[in-house]
């Protein structure tokens, strides 16, 4: 079916008390892996690209890939700009045909975050394209940027004001996750999440889910998370698959051979996470 937006997908998730998995894709095999996983599990799915991925091949390239995959599929698929770093990039993604946009003003002051988020929300509204925003700082290595320790957890009262002032349709919260892998076991501030949920009605988003124990992800979903982002572990899965083939047979020159292995590893990982998020069987 044609690409859909994340609006109904996330509303359904919120009402059904599950989360939709959002997977960062970087090449055609990763797109194929994610769509196969979604089809096999009858799950709605979000594929997303960061600014550095967009820089690698271009918004139109990823749109073409994901659109082709979605049109062959029977499950709802959305293409989301992850960590949109500027108003300009958000507008390019909108014009290209992305069906969901994130504007990440979390590195700005509270006031400037509100201003840039509102401007993107206003520009996307006529096309009914939903906008995810971020408040607080999710640390770690996010895209090409080092987010550091991510000291700024989301303040519930600020979150309430932020959503009210901007009209953002979903909100990424900082509750102790970080992008990339963790040195120890991450401790999520689940109480804070519940406090945010009490005062913010839009769907909440968990970034930095690679390396977060499945039980902690499920607990965050029980407390209001409706979208869970995975990037690093997809990269690892893909690379493991490719390395596996090349280590066993260094003379392999057919990209389809090691690409298929990468794809299968990513597919297995995505299926596991879809089941954990509770979105398996929720394609409607
Ligand atoms: P990870 O790389 O930790 O999975 O984070 C993904 C993410 O939040 C993308 O926005």
From TrEMBL:
Domain of life, per lineage: Bacteria
Catalytic-site annotation from UniProt: 82 (proton donor)
Q: Where is the signal peptide?
A: none
Against Gene3D superfamilies, the record matches this protein to: Aldolase class I
* Gene Ontology molecular functions: aldehyde-lyase activity; zinc ion binding
Query: Which cofactors is this protein said to need?
Result: Zn(2+)
Residues the entry annotates as binding Zn(2+) 1: 83, 179, 207
Q: How is the cofactor bound?
A: Binds 2 Zn(2+) ions per subunit. One is catalytic and the other provides a structural contribution.
Q: Where are the transmembrane segments?
A: none
Protein residues bound to dihydroxyacetone phosphate: 180, 208-210, 229-232
InterPro entries given in the database record: Aldolase_TIM, Class_II_FBP_aldolase, FBA_II
User: What Pfam families would the database entry show?
Assistant: F_bP_aldolase (PF01116)
Task: Please provide the record's keywords in A-Z order.
Answer: Metal-binding, Zinc
| GO annotation, biological process | carbohydrate metabolic process
Q: Where does Zn(2+) 2 bind?
A: 104, 134
PANTHER family given in the database record: D-TAGATOSE-1,6-BISPHOSPHATE ALDOLASE, D-TAGATOSE-1,6-BISPHOSPHATE ALDOLASE SUBUNIT GATY-RELATED
Q: What is this protein called?
A: Tagatose bisphosphate family class II aldolase
């Amino acid at each position: 079916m044609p690409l859909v937006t994340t609006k109904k997908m996330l509303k359904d998730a919120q009402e059904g008390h599950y989360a939709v998995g959002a997977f960062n894709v970087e090449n055609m095999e990763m797109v194929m892996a994610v769509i196969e996983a979604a089809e096999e599990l009858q799950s709605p799915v979000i594929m997303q690209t960061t600014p550095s991925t967009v820089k690698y091949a271009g918004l139109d390239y990823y749109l073409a890939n994901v659109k082709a995959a979605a049109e062959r599929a029977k499950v709802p698929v959305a293409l989301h700009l992850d960590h949109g770093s500027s108003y300009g990039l958000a507008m390019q993604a909108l014009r290209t045909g992305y069906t969901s946009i994130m504007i990440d003003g979390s590195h700005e002051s509270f006031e400037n975050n509100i201003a840039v988020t509102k401007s993107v929300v206003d520009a996307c509204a006529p096309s009914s394209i939903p906008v995810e925003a971020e408040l607080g700082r999710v640390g770690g290595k996010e895209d090409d940027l080092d987010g550091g320790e991510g000291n700024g957890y989301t303040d519930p009262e600020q979150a309430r004001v932020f959503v009210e002032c901007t009209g953002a349709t979903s909100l990424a919260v900082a509750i102790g996750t970080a992008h990339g892998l963790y040195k120890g076991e991450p401790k999520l501030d689940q109480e804070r999440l519940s406090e945010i949920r009490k005062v913010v009605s839009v769907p909440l988003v968990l970034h930095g889910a690679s390396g977060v124990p499945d039980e902690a992800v499920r607990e965050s979903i029980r407390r209001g998370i409706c979208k869970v982002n995975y990037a690093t572990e997809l990269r690892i899965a893909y690379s493991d698959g490719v390395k596996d083939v090349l280590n066993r047979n260094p003379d392999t020159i057919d990209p389809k051979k090691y690409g298929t292995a990468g794809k299968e590893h990513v597919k297995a990982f995505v299926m596991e996470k879809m089941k954990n998020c509770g979105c398996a069987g929720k394609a409607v």
